[in-house]
Design a protein that fits this description.
Elements: H1 8-37, H2 50-67, H3 75-84, H4 92-121
């Protein structure tokens, strides 16, 4: 049997990253839902819970880019979402709702990522 000693700081680092991703996913859902509840938008919706899944994937992508220090790549999220929602964004009410939700989601991941980077540097 091959035994490899894993240093404690590696386990602590893994736990910190796992916590950062879990916190970003779970807390981000609640924060975005809380903010968007104040700005209801009318109109037909897309697939059920698609926005929730897109938001989770968006926060994972943004957090990963922050942890790697690739801040410019974060704009890929906004670009991809804008292309996918091009026709819908022409409606002012939806555009405002879309921007509030997207920026809230991205800021949640950005803040958690920056805090994680700070903790790792300590």
């Amino acid at each position: 049997m091959l035994y490899v000693a894993i240093p404690w700081h590696s386990i602590e680092l893994l736990a910190l990253y796992a916590f950062a991703y879990a916190f970003t996913i779970v807390a981000g859902c609640y924060v975005v839902a809380f903010i968007l509840r104040r700005f209801p938008v009318s109109g037909e919706g897309g697939m059920k819970h698609a926005g929730l899944v897109i938001g989770i994937l968006e926060r994972i992508f943004v957090l990963t880019r922050v942890l790697y220090g690739q801040f410019t790549a974060i704009m890929l999220v906004l670009t991809a979402k804008s292309i996918a929602r091009f026709e819908d964004v022409k409606k002012r009410e939806f555009a405002e709702y879309y921007l509030i939700g997207t920026f809230t989601s991205m800021l949640c991941a950005l803040f958690v990522g920056l805090a994680t980077v700070w903790f790792v540097a300590q």
